[in-house]
Amino acid sequence: MKPAEAVVIVGGGTAGWLTAGTIAARHHARMKAGGLSVTRIESADLRAVGLFRRGYRAVIHVMIASL
């Protein structure tokens, strides 16, 4: 079976962000080489709730740095 080249996550929220961040952290080398893309889709009509959405980039950097 051929490895996936693209992952699409439908939904924002904490679960969507954590899923995208986890996949990005675990497959960072493949993504950097262009072998995998991760796309997250969420409604533009919903406002950001909570601190996590504002700080997700920092969380992803920490996850990647821990590899």
Compact overview of the structure:
By secondary structure, this protein is an alpha+beta fold. Helix content is 49%, strand content 15%.
Which helices and strands, and how do they pair?
Layout: E1 6-10, H1 13-26, H2 28-32, E2 37-41, H3 52-65
Parallel strand pairs: 1-2
Helix pairs in contact: 1-3
**Gross geometry:** flat
**Backbone CA Rg:** 13 Å
Taken together, the total number of domains comes to 1
In total, the number of strands is 2
| Beta fraction | 5-15%
> Order of SSEs, N→C?
EHHEH
- What can be said about the biggest beta sheet? 2 strands, parallel
The order of strands across the largest sheet is: 1-2
How many angstroms does the end-to-end distance come to? Answer: 26 Å
Total of DSSP H or I helical runs spanning 4+ residues = 3
Structural class: alpha+beta
Helix content: 40-55%
- Segments where pLDDT lies below 50 for 5+ residues? none
- Please, what is the average pLDDT? 79
